[in-house]
Amino acid sequence: MKQTCTPVDLDPSAPTSATGDPEAGRARIAASVMFAVHGAVGGGFASRLPWLQDHLDLSAGQLGLALAAPAVGASLAMPLAGALVHRYGGRSALRWLITLWCAVPLLPMSAPGLPWLCAALLLLGVGAGMSDVAMNTQGLVVEQRLRRSTLPLLHGMWSAGALVGAGLGTAAAFAGVDARVHMAALAVLLAVAGWIGSRGLLDARPTAGAPAPPRFALPSRAALTIGAVGFCAVFAEGAGMNWSAVHLKDVAGASPGVAALAYTGFALTMTIARLASGVLVDRFGVTRTVRAGAIVATVGAVLVATAHSPLPAAIGFALLGVGVSAVLPLTFAAAGRTGEDPSRSIAGVATVTYTSGLIAPAIVGGIADHASLGASFALVAVLTAALIPAARLLSPTARPIHATRTPDGRPSSRAGASSALLDLPGTTTSGAVVAVSVRRETRA
Prior knowledge:
Blueprint: H1 22-47, H2 49-56, H3 60-66, H4 69-88, H5 90-103, H6 106-109, H7 114-146, H8 151-174, H9 179-197, H10 221-250, H11 256-284, H12 286-306, H13 310-324, H14 327-335, H15 342-370, H16 373-390, E1 404-405, E2 411-412, H17 417-421, H18 431-437
Antiparallel strand pairs: 1-2
């Protein structure tokens, strides 16, 4: 039976349907599996980047150039993913796209040289972007059915999956397992898990006669201001995730196994920090939480920039991950409080922050090629330090909450990231969903 969904407002005081809708409860479990599988693939691949660099004898600049290719692939493919979900339904589209995502990392691991690697990473971006859009669309549908916030839990499952995938990659690196063999085995395991888990997904489709939503949105000045805050945090996150293992191997002199462990540690600290960020915001407020995190992240980035042995570098990456973990969710929340159309503001902010995450690996690699990785993370330290004064821009008191209007012209109390994301026609993938989907962070 095909499910349809209409926009709802999330009210913390309103009763939920968690116990009265067992189908939605099963869908939440299934969606959690999808997010975890997606994260495990990404974590496994990132943990074997040092092997890939050594295998193809790439410089830091060459690897950074290659890592920019997924950005192009994801950007080109995400609108197509929305069309697939619209045409084939959420369950079928996500089932096949997750399977594709599990298999596509084998291509870059098997590339014979840099040109082929760039082409393979382009396809990697296609798989990542398309499956990510379908996955987050499913999460939004489940959230609407349950009438309570669900995406933070799902994004946390992505982080946990990335941690598990990186852990398996670390074990494979320590054991000297060829990355192609490792990723092939991981692809089979995760594809089976995803296929089985997808049985509980909702086959959501747009409501009849729903107009096609815009695929792109021009960010407002307020969205650009908030997006600049997110840009700094996501740049630091992207630099840490993609270059932690390489930094420990090339600069700190760590063994390949210890270097692979760097990504695992980075993912672990970010996962724990995401789980705690909501409590910290409730207790200390947005500005203090972001400001304290920015200080911690800056200390971590300075440690990384100056470290020449594994221990201080590893500690630096851990502090960097903890410090920036809460910024992006709070950035989306702030975007939802701006303008008459919160979803458009969120889409604009997400576009800015996503661009940051995509260009960070290439910029870090380019600076490293002409100077050093230490110089690259000195730039990261500057960006995280900029978050200290900029933290006030994310405060709920920094800008008014604008009311939106329902389709029949009545005022609506929708405000904030959660409700704005649900202000969609049916369950189609709008520009907001597409943009937000590419970053998997827990909202505070």
